[in-house]
Amino acid sequence: MSQIVGIKFKDSGKLYYFAPNDIQLNKGDGAIVETARGVEYGTVAVPNTEVADDEIKGELKPVLRKATAADEQQRAENIAKRAHAIRQAQDMANRRKMDMKFVDAEFTFDNSKVLFYFTSDNRIDFRDLVKELAATFHMRIELRQIGIRDECKMKGGLGPCGRVCCCNDYMGDFERVSIKMAKHQGLSLNPGKISGLCGRLMCCLKFEDDYYADTLKFMPKVNSVIDTPNGKGRVDKVDVLRQTVVVSTEIGEGEVQINEYTLEQLGITPVYGNACAQCNGCKNEPDDDDDDDTDILPETDE
Fold it and tell me: What would the pLDDT profile of 82-118 be if each residue is shown by its tens digit?
């Protein structure tokens, strides 16, 4: 058995594991660790934990020490310098008429390097800009171009739900989101209603998609004809959450009766997994939308 400790360098960033080297660390403690970028300050997210040796992939880098008051002061100074560094870099890019928008700057704990994040619609040749930045900050410079989702993750904000954006609050990595997920949930395909602050599909569409996708496998399809306690009828609507079906049944010439049925009333047994509710053995028919795995929204007047 070996001890590990989980450390984050950003509140919504990835979790990295280190060897604590007999240093007892509690959740929320600051720690100075050795990383591929050099010596860095991180916050403990997972305290000392014992795991089997075969669960550790590769060699863990060490925790150098628990953060001291001087380390906390150094970190605070590094954070305070970020806003001014971003403005300086943006001014230099503007003077050169470069299509760059600087989003964030990170100083390594030991002030040996500063990493600038920027967005741009085009590929940028920033070699001359790097030289000017190096002469200004007197340290190694790294420029990294990021996407619009990453910009939203760094800046944060309030989503349409009124809560802080998930990507900025707790999500470590982005997951692929597609139009098919919005269709599963019966949402409007109006871009303004299913897009986040970044202009892309909202990350939360992914959260309940597994439930919707599995449930839709045994729910009748809209416009299909099914047997009901009142005879054959056409499916008008399905409610995935309540697991009910609205069916139109002809009761006479020109007369239609609309009823809502539970799955039990329709004789359908919910079965989750690969088997369907009818015979528990055959494969479900392919969904016509299965190939629609894109995050590009269609134009709509809805």
Answer: 999 999 999 999 999 999 999 999 998 988 899 999 9
Q: Considering only CA atoms, which of 266, 269, 215 is closest in space to residue 242? A: 215
| HSE-CB for 237 with a 13 A CA cutoff | 9
First to last CA, the chain: 58
Q: Give residue-wise pLDDT tens across range 115-168.
A: 999 998 888 888 899 999 999 999 999 999 988 888 888 888 888 888 888 888
Q: For 138-178, where are the alpha helices, taking DSSP H only? A: 148-155, 166-169
Supply 248's token pair: 């139109």
Contact of 102 with 150, CB cutoff 8 Å = no
Q: Which parts of the chain register pLDDT below 50?
A: 275-302
Residues 181, 204: Cα–Cα separation, whole Å: 10
DSSP-derived secondary structure letter, 254: T
Spatial separation of the C-alpha atoms in residues 130 and 50, rounded to whole Å: 44
